[in-house]
Write a structure and sequence with these properties.
Blueprint lengths: L3 E3 L2 E3 L3 E3 L8 H9 L5 E2 L16 E4 L2 E4 L8 H11 L6 E5 L4 H11 L7 E5 L15 H12 L6 E5 L5 H11 L6 E4 L3 E5 L1 E2 L4 E2 L7 E6 L3 H14 L5 E5 L5 H9 L4 E4 L1 H6 L3 H16 L16
Parallel strand pairs: 3-16, 4-7, 7-8, 8-9, 9-10, 10-15, 15-16
Antiparallel strand pairs: 1-2, 5-6, 6-14, 11-14, 12-13
The structure holds the ligand C=Cc1c(C(=O)O)[nH]c(=O)[nH]c1=O.
Length: 309
């Protein structure tokens, strides 16, 4: 019922984890392997390990979450080595990369090429929490330059993690760039950058880094995520799959993203809040909705959102 394909990668279940929450250590990745998730996606890696920002740097809120983690990770070699350990789960292992420079990204991508247990690379062009570093994907010229350099050397299935866009012209400009490259997928969206959540009783910010400014996830961002999924589904070549992430905590949320055109959906904040059992929860809810509507597979309704009459 829930099987899908991202480019030529088969997933038995179209629901898996978003990069970031609960996917930094081998133990966390193995827990994802043991769960109902259809794939395993790592925390974005840099060339060398990083400690990230001082805590509190991630906080759950009633409407979702706010984070300014600062890209803490165990370094790309760790996630490369993890590939062999995760092969026994027989589900695609995708490595997320977020190098501090184009040179770092190219070096990490080159080292990933020969590892057959890495199904794909998700190149993160949208980390909002590196002080002094703008989100690459908000700079269209730089994005084109990065993708040209990446595809001059990459032969593995590769997609990009995009930030949310809010201007219809930006969707068109970005799609025009992305359509030039042999991308396997785009993952929409990363957190909405630089939100601010306050504890009014203590009269202070919830998180410490960047004076409390951080990426928003969860209910706050679902409507924006749906819009980005829909726009890129309509504007990108059909060979480029759209993977949805943003505000998915139920089968209904997953159904809505697939209706907008998503080939697969990723779970971030809800995974942080409820743990890897969320994949079985959301899978069961989505299956029930599909059965109630008479759909056998996600292709029966994917992308078929109607505009109000
Ligand atoms: C890779 C860094 C990211 C981070 C982070 O490590 O601060 N948080 C996000 O919400 N999105 C990111 O892409």
């Amino acid at each position: 019922m829930l099987q899908t394909k991202i480019a030529n990668i088969k997933l038995a279940n179209c629901i898996y984890n978003a990069s970031g929450p609960a996917c930094s250590s081998l133990e966390e990745l193995q827990a994802l392997g043991q769960s109902a998730a259809g794939a395993i996606l790592s925390k974005s890696a840099t060339l060398a390990p990083r400690a990230g920002n001082p805590a509190p740097r991630y906080v759950d809120t009633p409407w979702g979450s706010i984070n300014s983690m600062g890209l803490p990770n165990k370094g790309h070699a760790y996630y490369l080595a993890a590939a062999k350990e995760l092969a026994s789960f027989q589900k695609p292992y995708i490595v997320s990369l977020s190098g501090m420079s184009l040179a770092d990204n190219l070096k990490m991508i080159a080292e990933m090429q020969e590892e057959e247990n890495i199904a794909a690379i998700e190149l993160n062009l949208s980390c909002p929490n590196l002080p002094g570093k703008p989100q690459t994907a908000y700079d269209f010229e730089q994005t084109e330059k990065v993708l040209a350099a990446v595809f001059a050397q990459n032969n593995k299935p590769l997609g990009v993690k995009l930030p949310p866009y809010f201007d219809l012209l930006h969707f068109e400009q970005m799609a025009q760039i992305l359509n030039q490259f042999p991308l396997s997928f785009v993952s929409c969206i990363n957190s909405i950058g630089n939100g601010l959540v306050i504890d009014w009783e203590k009269e202070e910010t919830l998180i410490r880094p960047k004076d409390g400014f951080g990426g928003l996830g969860g209910d706050y961002i679902k409507a924006t995520a749906l819009a980005n999924v829909r726009q890129f589904y309509l504007l990108l070549r059909p060979e480029i799959s759209v993977v949805a992430v943003g505000g998915i905590k139920s089968g209904q949320d997953a159904f809505e993203h697939i209706l907008c055109g998503a080939k697969a959906v990723q779970i971030g904040t809800h995974l942080m809040k409820t743990g890897p059992s969320c994949f079985a929860q959301i899978s069961a809810e989505l299956t029930a909705i599909m059965q109630a509507k008479g759909y056998q597979s996600i292709e029966d309704f994917r992308g078929k959102l109607k505009t109000a009459a």
